[in-house]
Amino acid sequence: GGAMAAPRQLSRFWEWGKNIVCVGRNYADHAKEMQSALPSEPLLFLKPSTAYVPDGSAILMPPYSSNLHHELELGVVMGRRSRAVPEAAAMDYVAGYALCLDMTARDVQDECKKKGLPWTLAKSFTASCPVSAFVPKERIPDPHNLKLWLRVNGELRQEGETASMIFSIPYIISYVSKIMTLEEGDIILTGTPKGVGPVKENDEIQAGIHGVVSMRFKVEKPEY
Fold first, then answer.
1. Could you point out which of 47, 92, 192, 211 has its C-alpha 20 to 30 Å from the C-alpha of 72?
2. Fumarylacetoacetase-like C-terminal domain location, by residue (predicted)?
3. Which portions of the chain are predicted below pLDDT 70?
4. CB atoms < 10 A from the CB of 81, how many?
């Protein structure tokens, strides 16, 4: 027999959390820059748990894309099993937060959109979900009052306020939990503000929630 599995700690949710649920087009200014209509309900897609990249590790470029973009997002980490949760109770199911990047193969996504195909190839590749350290819920009394920022090689690229979200976090949790059961350690990415753009090999991405947490990643080509 091997060693017993280490106890699951929410502070390392990316090592054992199963589901990564992403909300597209949740900031009007980003929908506009993508020339997309404003959604009447949340647009959802999934990433596999192997998409996680912890702070300080390398973001790997998908070899089939030549236009990899950063999308800066607030992630909501679930603290317990959530199924058909009413909006009024939704925040009771939250354990904390993490800053996330929804790395996107934009050229591939454009092709998918043209053909009416799912976005899996554009959004769900290995290393497509870089995450910050876990931030316990107590440290963020109001998740709709945060400033997010992202720099590439020191240059400010994205800056946004979670107050600008189209769908609120309790609404999103309730909506998602009526479609799929969420479990402890699962995360919901709540959409990106404007300013998404390309990164290339050897770029350094730094991002943060102002006054709360920051993170840093190097962009690398995989060895295959």
1. 92
2. 20-219
3. 1-6
4. 13
